[in-house]
Amino acid sequence: NVNTTGFRKDQVSFATQLDSATMVHDANIAGRRTSLHDDVYYGHIPVDIPVMVDAHYTAQTQGNFVFTDNPLDAAIEGDGYFVLQTPEGERYTRAGSFRLNETGYIVNQSGYAVLAENGPINAIGEDIAIGESGEVVVDGALLDRLRVVTVDQPGMLVKDKESFYRLRDENGTVQNVPYPVVHSGLLESSNVKSIEELNAMTINMRSFEASSKAVKTIERIVSRAINGVGKA
After folding, report:
1. The model's pTM
2. What backbone phi and psi angles, to 5 degrees, belong to 121?
């Protein structure tokens, strides 16, 4: 999804999984968040202890802006989501690649209506522009303003099809952003950076290889101890 407009990557957080002896020995490190590459100290000796996936979450870092020169394309700076009207209900997106359909309504690339403060936008005219606060101006006259919403907690939104989000709870609510910052003629790119992902993959692979070698070494030592001590 490096080239998917408005896409935000998923990440996981890890928590250390401690046995009771370690927790008694040093209760201060119980439940400490860590990455797969961190060392956790047992007394004065750094040791690797098991980790478990603690939570999945969507990285909320903003992607770069890409110039398109299409006056209907829009990108939000800061928090907020555009609102789309779909057969399944309202959906929220950072992908502001919009166009006019055959009846003059502003829709996204899949044909779903973009919602403004007063509903779908019928923007029939010669000159259509989107202002810095999401105002839709047609032939010099203010028609409506794009609806930009946010949520109290990012976890309230879950990913849906395409680059859409929906509310996790059907009874959840969103709040309109009173003064959004919207850039016309730009699109927000994905916040996935291929170089960072390749670097992380390399680090993880090396950590896996080192751990595999350590396990094999321990197996050989245990095997020799069992066989040698048993014979002695």
Report:
1. 0.71
2. -110, 115
